[in-house]
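Sequence, please.
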């Protein structure tokens, strides 16, 4: 009997799942069946988001200088404004210490007169205009000259705005893409503003045929240019921005994207299109949809960003210091200037505030993530399964209420995830599939299975229990605490004097600088098949042999250390050329038995290693400071190398917390070494032999010869000092040749 009930519920599930899956595939192939409704459902999330309300002026990393109705009333028609107004604005906010200035204004054509024409007017001023002003307007000659200068400055060409743009070096100008004469060749000065993500990356972004650039007088001296025109969805709502558009094989960034990338120090080489259809931009991973469109995470209603009136700034009514360290965007909210766009929760929203939102999103990493096809299918499958199970196991009325409860819960979850994690879960396509699955199960039950309703409920409960147990037991080893003992190799590296360096940098500079270093070093660990255990501030801990492949873990760790020093040399040269602080590091490598496995609490644990040999590896890293070396390995690691790397015996030490001494070696490198290095190693080795035999005079002679070969050699300098000490204060007869190191 039980088997029959189970079969009935299973058939309900199969019918509902089949129909729901079929609907999913159909609407996915013909997305016009649901996309418009899905967009409207997406917009509702903003309407239901209480955090959007009451945020006026809350965000101040971007300040908007707004060409508003008051500015037009004060200064007259916008079309009649001379460009020297804009020059004064840019100059004024920069005097206050603005981080960047972006004009959401299109300066496509030249403004006013040419230089020759202006010269003519200057000559006329001397001959006639000043006299006319004196006679007709009652102005004295000095006042008349000042008025004429101002008029000529206003109708003059773009020199003043260009001079301000070039002088401050942080001014951005807007351009059009998709507008203009097709095939317009690109001037040479645009090349420094474009990006290249390789053939595949460039092809991913939409190709435009027309372009309208800022006038060369302005564009050629700008910090950056970007397209400020927006591409709304078919219903006219602006929900996303294409990060780039392609024109004649060159990638041009969106206006806000360019400003944000520069603020974060993201260069062309930091960009890549990943397989997950996201754009890697330095430390950021920017989720994008078709044609590289990034969903805009709107932060609030109009004037959420700190906003001041254009005329107030021009007339000096806003202190210049108000703009210190801010990104200043200059654009319009006045109704008559045609720069208001529909967004998900507002029918009219200033275009300049859209750009401000894009800048804010990228700088703060506030991105809306839309799940991919497979996760979307799995969600639909789960909802369809729940719908089919509930409708198949419960009586129709109870099933309907239960399914409504499931869908209300799903809507709540989708809203919570949108607000807390900026995750967009679809609702329309799953609803289609769930509704189809529900109707199909009801039809199936009423036609063929109504008489067995009670058995269906029992079968449903049995099915769910079995599924949950199977899922929990699928990988039990991942849930087990503790671990196992294995011979592994551990590598520690640490930046010298990091605290001192960090005090000299701003937090943003420090994070960028450290991220560059850690990224390069981590890539080397992965390249040699190591496991990155953890970062502890500026320290890196890596383990070799814990994950496949398990063999040659000591050699791979040592090669990693050598490559890290080589790569650090390249970084140091780069940083010196950029006048950035230069990092120097110490590396310690040790091999031995360690406990490896998941360690922690039941709520949270990490796959890591522990034990005395791990601690010894950490100690070896710190000992580099004593000897002036960069890489120290233990005798246990050396035994696993089979002579494949060049080493120098350093010392026999007894570290704090251990009774038995350990012989340590400096890792020089791999392959052939220059004769001078081989001679240095030979002399140092002979000095070590004499040192062990307590022949302090002879040992000192050898170490002195090493210093002649390489002045400042840390180990030889240390042993020369020791020999001098032991000559006057010899160690006891029981001395085993070990040097006690008390510091960690």
């Amino acid at each position: 009997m039980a088997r029959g009930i189970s079969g009935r519920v299973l058939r309900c599930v199969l019918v509902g799942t089949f129909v729901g899956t079929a609907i999913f595939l159909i609407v996915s192939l013909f997305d016009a069946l649901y996309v418009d409704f899905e967009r409207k459902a997406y917009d509702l999330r903003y309407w239901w988001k209480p955090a959007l309300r009451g945020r006026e002026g809350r965000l101040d990393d971007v300040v908007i200088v707004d060409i508003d109705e008051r500015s037009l009333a004060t200064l007259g028609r916008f079309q009649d404004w001379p460009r020297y107004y804009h020059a004064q604005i840019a100059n004024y906010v920069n005097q206050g210490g603005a981080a960047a200035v972006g004009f959401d204004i299109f300066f496509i054509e030249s403004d006013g007169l040419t230089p020759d024409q202006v010269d003519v007017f200057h000559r006329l001023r001397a001959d006639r205009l000043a006299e006319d002003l004196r006679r007709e307007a009652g102005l004295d000659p000095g006042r008349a000259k000042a008025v004429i200068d101002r008029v000529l400055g206003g109708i003059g060409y773009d020199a003043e705005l260009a001079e301000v743009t070039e002088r401050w070096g942080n001014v951005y100008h807007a351009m059009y893409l998709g507008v203009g004469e097709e095939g317009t060749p690109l001037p040479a000065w645009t090349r420094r503003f474009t990006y290249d993500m390789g053939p595949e990356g460039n092809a991913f972004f939409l190709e435009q045929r027309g372009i309208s650039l800022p006038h060369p007088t302005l564009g050629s001296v700008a910090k950056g240019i970007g397209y400020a025109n927006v591409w709304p969805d078919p219903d006219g709502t602006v929900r996303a921005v294409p990060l780039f558009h392609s024109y004649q094989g060159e990638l041009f960034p969106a206006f806000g994207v360019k400003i944000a990338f520069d603020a974060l120090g993201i260069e062309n080489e930091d960009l890549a299109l990943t397989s997950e259809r996201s754009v890697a931009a330095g430390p950021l991973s920017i989720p994008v949809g078709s044609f590289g469109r990034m969903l805009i995470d709107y932060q609030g209603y109009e004037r959420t960003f700190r906003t001041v009136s254009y005329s107030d700034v021009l007339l000096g009514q806003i202190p210049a210091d108000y703009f210190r360290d801010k990104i200043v965007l200059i654009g319009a909210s006045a109704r008559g200037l045609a720069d208001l766009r529909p967004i998900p929760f507002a029918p009219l929203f200033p275009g300049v505030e859209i750009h401000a939102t894009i800048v804010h999103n990228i700088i703060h990493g506030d991105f809306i993530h839309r799940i991919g096809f497979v996760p979307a299918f799995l969600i639909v499958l789960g909802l369809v399964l729940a719908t089919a199970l509930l409708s198949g196991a419960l009586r129709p009325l109870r099933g309907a209420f239960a399914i409504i409860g499931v869908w209300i819960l799903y809507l709540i979850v989708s809203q919570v995830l949108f607000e807390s994690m900026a995750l967009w879960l679809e609702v329309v396509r799953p609803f289609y599939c769930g509704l189809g699955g529900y109707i199909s199960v009801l039809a199936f039950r009423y036609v063929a299975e109504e008489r067995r309703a009670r058995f269906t409920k029992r079968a449903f409960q049995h099915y769910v229990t079995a599924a949950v147990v199977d899922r929990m037991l699928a990988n039990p080893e991942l849930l087990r605490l503790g671990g196992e003992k294995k011979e592994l190799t551990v590598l520690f590296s640490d930046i010298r004097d990091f605290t001192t360096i960090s005090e000299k940098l701003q937090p943003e500079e420090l994070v960028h600088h450290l991220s560059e270093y850690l990224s390069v070093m981590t890539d080397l660990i992965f390249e040699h098949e190591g496991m990155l255990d953890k970062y502890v501030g500026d320290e890196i801990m890596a383990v070799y042999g814990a994950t496949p492949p398990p063999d040659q873990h000591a050699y791979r760790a040592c090669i990693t250390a050598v490559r890290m020093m080589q790569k650090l040399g390249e970084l140091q040269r780069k940083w010196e050329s950029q006048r950035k602080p230069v990092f120097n590091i110490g590396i310690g490598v040790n091999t031995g038995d360690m406990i490896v496995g998941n360690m922690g609490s039941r709520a949270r644990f990490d796959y890591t290693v522990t034990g005395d040999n791990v601690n010894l590896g950490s100690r070896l890293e710190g000992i580099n400071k004593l000897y002036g070396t960069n890489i120290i390995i233990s005798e246990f690691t050396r035994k696993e190398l089979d002579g494949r790397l060049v080493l120098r015996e350093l010392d026999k030490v007894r570290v704090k917390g251990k009774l038995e001494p350990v012989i340590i070696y400096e890792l020089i490198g791999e392959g052939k070494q220059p004769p001078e290095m081989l001679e240095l190693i030979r002399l140092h080795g002979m000095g070590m032999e004499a040192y062990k035999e307590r022949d302090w005079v002879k040992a000192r002679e050898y170490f002195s010869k090493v210093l002649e070969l390489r002045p400042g050699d840390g180990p030889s300098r240390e042993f020369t000092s020791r020999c001098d000490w032991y000559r006057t204060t010899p160690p006891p007869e029981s001395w085993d040749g070990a040097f006690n190191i008390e510091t960690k």
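The chain has five domains: 2-33+371-474, 62-110+169-364, 115-155, 480-671, 673-744.
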